[in-house]
Amino acid sequence: MTDKILVVEDDLDIADLIRVNLIELGAEITHQDNGERALQLALENDFSLLILDVMLPGKSGLDICRQVREKKPEQAIIMLTAKNSETDRVLGLELGADDYMTKPFSVRELQARVRAQLRKVHVLQSASQPQQVDSEKPLEIGRLSINQKNHQVIFEGTELDLTATEFELLFHLASHPNQVFSRSQLLESVWGYHHSGYEHTVNSHINRLRAKIESDATDPKIVQTVWGVGYKFSPQGVS
Predict the structure, then answer these.
(1) How far is residue 18's CA from residue 16's CA, in Å, rounded to a whole number?
(2) Per-residue pLDDT of the chain (239 residues; tens, 9 = 90+)
(3) How far apart are alpha carbons 53 and 102 in whole angstroms?
(4) Are 4 and 27 in contact (CB under 8 A)?
(5) Would strands 144-147 and 139-141 be described as parallel, antiparallel, or unpaired?
(6) What's the pTM?
(7) Residue 219 half-sphere exposure, CB side, CA atoms within 13 Å?
(8) Which candidate, 194, 77, 13, 98, places its Cα nearest to that of 21?
(9) HSE of 231 in the Cβ direction (CA atoms, 13 Å)?
(10) Do 136 and 148 form a contact (C-beta atoms < 8 A)?
(11) How many C-beta atoms surround the C-beta of residue 105 within 10 A?
(12) First CA to last CA across the chain, in angstroms?
């Protein structure tokens, strides 16, 4: 099945650059340069991936990200931000973006980021299909159950509403209890790339995951910070 990608970018040269290079991946590209119309398209259609510029006429990419995430929690989203706009990058991730890229960017890096997100989308789509035989048991740790087959996470009897990236992050950490991972290692294992300068991606997803799984996100017991090193999953937190 062809992946459908919505590119929301009001700079026509950049939009055309993105379109040409994503067509190389076999994707079907829809372009929109107005934020209001883009939001309507995103909510009314099934896109594998949204690529959102921050600054748009009509409605900002940040607003689109927030409103789409409220209606479609599993929608894959990449934000495009200006090179020096750290505030937009952090805010975009906190609002639910799976990843971000700064302009100007390498087209090869763009393709790599898009491939990484589409791989997660394909896994999620496969998980939603009926399975005749399910021989893989969920990962059970105390009060936490993680089913990789259907991307379902149940904690204390309640199903958690996680994005595809949040699921992959939790599953990776929980699969290696008490092992400490640096942000660089998590970028490579969960996002599928390793580029310096993108550590905010990991930080923001850790914060979002904690908000959903910890009783007190300011004092995490499950996904813990090991200062100066990285993060680890503590089985004691779910026992």
Answers:
(1) 5
(2) 789 999 999 999 999 999 999 999 999 999 999 999 999 999 999 999 999 999 999 999 999 999 999 999 889 999 998 867 778 888 888 888 999 998 888 999 999 999 999 988 888 777 655 444 344 688 999 999 999 888 899 999 999 999 889 999 999 999 999 999 999 899 888 888 766 667 788 999 999 999 999 999 999 999 999 998 999 999 999 98
(3) 10
(4) yes
(5) antiparallel
(6) 0.76
(7) 2
(8) 13
(9) 25
(10) yes
(11) 15
(12) 42
Judge contact between 229 and 181, C-beta under 8 A: no
Q: Return d(Cα 137, Cα 197) in angstroms, integer.
A: 37
- How far apart CA 48 and CA 35 sit, in angstroms, is 18
List, in order, residues 6 or more apart from 219 with CB less than 8 Å away. none
Count Cβ atoms within 10 A of the Cβ of residue 132 and give its class: 0-12 exposed, 13-18 middle, 19 or more buried: exposed
In whole angstroms, what is the distance from residue 189 CA to residue 119 CA? 13
**String of DSSP letters for 12-80:** HHHHHHHHHHHHTTT-EEEEE--HHHHHHHHHHS--SEEEEESS-SSS-HHHHHHHHHHH-TT-EEEEE
Rounded to whole angstroms, the Cα distance separating 121 from 50 reads 12
Dist. CA 229–CA 72, nearest whole Å: 34
Cβ neighbours, 10 Å, residue 87:
10
Structure tokens at 28: 């079907």
**Strand-pair category, 99-103 with 223-226:** unpaired
